Amino acid sequence: MTLVELEIGTRQWSELRCGCGQSGAHLADELLRLARREDEDPHGALGLAGHAFSDVVLFEPAPAVVGVALAALADRPSAVSRARFLDLLLSLVAGEGTAEEVAREGRDLEEESIAACRNGLWLLYAEVFAGESADLATRAFEVLTVIEDDRGRLERACDVAGDAIAWYAKPPYQEL
Fold first, then answer.
1. 108 and 134 housed in the same domain
2. Per the structure, how many domains does the chain have?
3. What is the pLDDT of residue 176?
4. What is the dihedral of CA 120, 127, 144, 99, to 10 degrees?
5. Residue 132's domain spans which residues?
6. Do 123 and 172 touch, CB atoms closer than 8 A?
7. CB-based contact 170:143 (threshold 8 Å)
8. Which of 17, 59, 71, 72 supports an S-S bond with 3, CB 3.0-4.6 Å?
9. Residue 68, phi then psi, degrees to nearest 5
10. pTM, entire model
């Protein structure tokens, strides 16, 4: 069993209201397929648009999908797969819940997704410092700029990582 399978199994996907209007039951299979796929399309995770997120709007499955994306990163798949899941994480933590979702269910999907992603804080820092590629380091760092509460640690990481992080992801940060 992989970590992705373990994380998928912890959720009641059929109880989640998917962005496509169906129950979230189909997301478990889609996420498993995504984790197993080793093709060359690093943006394949964006196929979840309309299900967990759409442009900048989050849907109910978003926090659960964050957990699966972190489990996928912990499984240390190929670089293409890690890029795919880092892009997915960024879409999920940079998105916003809707006012009607908060009013209807009292949930803040944006905060829930960010809180879920903070569980993988050290996975993201490890990706920044892995030295495998500037692309992966930059993607992980971009997620960190959204979720990291300790701005001093984030700035220090940026300084230490140096050229491992692309110039466009470095300070001045928009909200730092």
1. no
2. 2
3. 42
4. -60
5. 120-176
6. no
7. no
8. 71
9. -70, -40
10. 0.87
